[in-house]
């Protein structure tokens, strides 16, 4: 896939013009709610398409700036690839701007552009003063060397320049990895009349296709993707970096909430205890105490919990990373490397943030030995690094593992002897757990196909592989399929794949009527009428007739003479055997008519069928047995 997808964020203090600038850039008003219009502030996340060409697609999220709506701001920024920091020329850097900067640092956002707005409200001399103030404030932040653009959203001065700067910056940036398992933290849940439940969010990683079966974590609900929309346009697939709305079957709106995560793999961990590396904000208003209540923002989830230290009882100021643990009141979905923000519930303030070292934390003793163990976890063992790389890449060559883990070839080969690693070709490795998950995915898809098409031999292999090939290499899919066959769980018949226990059959509610058709055709022997009338006389609906007829023919229970006339399979066999017994090596139509007593209307199609089946071949006016 050559096209790349990005989501950018507008961040900054309230009333500095983020929403107006978003509208100027996209021609979309992201203030949708009535109360947003009335109060002239953004409460919920607003999204809009910014730019698209053959190489790149860019979406914008306008995050709320007011302190009371910091939760939505964190949910929006958590999934973005570039931040446009909006600072009004008539006010400069404000407290909310500084808090947003701290949050961006903790979330690991590394790319930014500064938009100095409302420039038509001040003179050029003041703009220069404001610029100097802004650059002083942004020292030692991700925006220290960021490009800046002077804009006025009302007159559109500088808007196109800003848009061009965003496009150029992102075209030089790597997009998120679409090879990983699909993950979309949900930030909005709603219903659409006639469609059902819809969830919206930014795809953190991986890709998903229409029709794919996914899981809602931490609830463990299984759902199927009915439709996918990107900016109100129906699409077949959605990729990492895109904003998407997914119409889901198998779940109601009431069962879901912001913070739930839509995933395609069981490798994501559901947990309440996480080991973390944390940094605190530069100017804490209050001491952070041992086991104090905290509000953890991770992905789009917002969960209460407590912070546990192992080498101290409080923090007043700290510039270095602190290794500690978060014990949460509710389950979250996370993995190593995920970013989080910590807020004090009351009095409200951002305490700090960082990244997840170990999603499955345990209870440890207070003391430096625990800190030493956490330091080792932070670095990561060789096995953990290899496992993390394979979870991300699914199937990797040794050279790729060396690049992704920064381990030596010898170290990697030593670890790869473990039973959890599988060599699927001469040079590519995967995880046994990935094979098991994929095999379960195959069985689920094939089982669903059998339930929908019980008369068909099985699902076409290409159809089985297609929705998975964006996430998994074809070589891995082939290996898993072969494994399923070797285990006698799956069966391959030509290009079709079925469950080994599956036997094609007419749907149960039509089996008796189909049997009646066969009985009547057998009773009529050679003197049959139009085949479609047999089915209609039994009340079998038109939409099923061709499928059942094709199935019976595939099973050899009926044989077509032409498009209109069919014989019961046993009657056809008897006719062939009788004709062969009572003729010599060759015969003509007259002899055949005399033996079988058929009219010419049926005799000609019958003899042509023998030719078609290569039982006979025509020689002038005679047939010769082959």
Automatic annotation (TrEMBL):
The keyword Aminoacyl-tRNA synthetase does not apply. Residues 3-174 form the Tr-type G domain. CDD domains: SelB (cd04171), SelB_II (cd03696), selB_III (cd15491). The keyword Manganese does not apply. GO terms for biological process: selenocysteine incorporation. One of its GO terms (cellular component) is cytosol. It is found in: Cytoplasm. InterPro entries: Beta-barrel_SelB, EF-Tu_GTPase, EFTu-like_2, Elong_fac_SelB-wing-hlx_typ-2, P-loop_NTPase, SelB_WHD4, Small_GTP-bd, T_Tr_GTP-bd_dom. Keywords: Cytoplasm, Elongation factor, GTP-binding, Nucleotide-binding, Protein biosynthesis. GO terms for molecular function: GTP binding; GTPase activity; RNA binding; translation elongation factor activity. Pfam families: Beta-barrel_SelB (PF25461), GTP_EFTU (PF00009), GTP_EFTU_D2 (PF03144), WHD_2nd_SelB (PF09106), WHD_3rd_SelB (PF09107). Translation factor necessary for the incorporation of selenocysteine into proteins. It probably replaces EF-Tu for the insertion of selenocysteine directed by the UGA codon. SelB binds GTP and GDP. This is Selenocysteine-specific elongation factor. It comes from Niallia endozanthoxylica. The lineage of its organism: Bacteria, Bacillati, Bacillota, Bacilli, Bacillales. The gene is selB.
């Amino acid at each position: 896939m050559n096209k790349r997808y990005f989501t950018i964020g507008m961040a900054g203090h309230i009333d500095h013009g983020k929403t107006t600038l978003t509208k100027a850039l996209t021609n979309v008003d992201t203030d949708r709610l009535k109360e947003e219009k009335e109060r002239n502030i953004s409460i919920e996340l607003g999204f809009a398409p910014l730019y698209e060409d053959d190489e790149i697609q860019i979406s914008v999220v306008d995050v709320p700036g007011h302190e009371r709506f910091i939760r939505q701001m964190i949910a929006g920024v958590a999934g973005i690839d570039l931040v446009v920091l909006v600072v009004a020329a008539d006010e400069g850097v404000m407290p909310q701007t500084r808090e947003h900067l701290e949050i961006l640092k903790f979330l690991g956002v590394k790319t930014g552009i500064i938009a100095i707005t409302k420039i038509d409200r001040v003179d050029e001399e003041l703009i220069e003063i404001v610029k100097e103030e802004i650059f002083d404030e942004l020292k030692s932040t991700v925006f220290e060397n960021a490009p800046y653009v002077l804009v006025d959203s009302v007159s559109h001065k500088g808007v196109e320049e800003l848009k061009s700067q965003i496009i150029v910056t992102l075209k030089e940036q790597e997009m998120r990895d679409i090879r990983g398992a699909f993950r979309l933290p949900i930030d909005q849940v709603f219903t659409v009349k006639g469609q059902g439940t819809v969830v919206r969010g930014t795809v953190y990683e991986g890709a998903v296709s229409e029709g794919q079966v996914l899981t809602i974590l931490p609830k463990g609900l299984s759902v199927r993707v009915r439709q996918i929309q990107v900016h109100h346009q129906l699409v077949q697939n959605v990729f990492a970096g895109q904003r998407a709305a997914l119409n889901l079957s198998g779940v109601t709106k009431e069962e879901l909430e912001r913070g739930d995560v839509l995933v395609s793999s069981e490798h994501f961990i559901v947990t309440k205890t996480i080991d973390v590396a944390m940094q605190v904000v530069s100017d804490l208003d209050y001491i952070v105490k041992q086991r104090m209540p905290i509000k953890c923002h991770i992905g789009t989830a917002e969960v209460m919990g407590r912070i546990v230290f192992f080498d101290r009882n409080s923090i007043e100021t700290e510039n270095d990373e602190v290794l500690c643990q978060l014990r949460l009141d509710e389950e979250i979905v996370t993995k190593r490397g995920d970013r989080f923000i910590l807020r004090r519930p009351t009095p409200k303030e951002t305490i700090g943030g960082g990244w997840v070292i170990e999603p499955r934390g345990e209870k440890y003793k207070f003391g430096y030995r625990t800190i030493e163990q956490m330091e080792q976890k932070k670095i990561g063992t060789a096995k953990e690094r290899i496992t993390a790389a394979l979870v991300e890449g699914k199937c990797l060559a040794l050279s790729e593992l060396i690049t992704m883990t920064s381990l030596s070839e010898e170290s990697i080969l030593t670890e790869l002897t473990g039973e959890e690693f599988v060599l699927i070709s001469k040079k590519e490795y995967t995880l046994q757990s990935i094979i098991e998950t994929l095999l379960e995915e195959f069985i689920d898809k094939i089982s669903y196909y059998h339930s929908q098409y019980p008369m068909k031999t099985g699902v076409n292999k290409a159809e089985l592989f297609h929705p998975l090939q964006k996430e998994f290499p074809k070589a891995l899919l082939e290996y898993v399929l072969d494994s399923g066959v070797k285990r006698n769980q799956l069966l391959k018949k030509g290009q079709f794949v079925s469950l080994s226990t599956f036997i094609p059959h007419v749907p149960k509610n039509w089996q008796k009527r189909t049997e009646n058709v066969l009985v009547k055709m057998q009773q009529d022997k050679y003197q049959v009428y139009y085949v479609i009338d047999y089915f209609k006389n039994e009340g079998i609906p038109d939409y099923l007739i061709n499928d059942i007829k094709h199935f019976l023919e595939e099973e050899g229970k009926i044989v077509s003479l032409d498009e209109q006339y069919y014989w019961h399979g046993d009657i056809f066999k008897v006719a062939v055997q009788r004709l062969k017994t009572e003729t010599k090596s060759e015969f003509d139509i007259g002899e055949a008519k005399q033996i079988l007593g058929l009219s010419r209307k049926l005799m000609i199609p019958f003899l042509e069928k023998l030719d078609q089946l290569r039982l006979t071949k025509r020689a002038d006016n005679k047939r010769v047995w082959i």
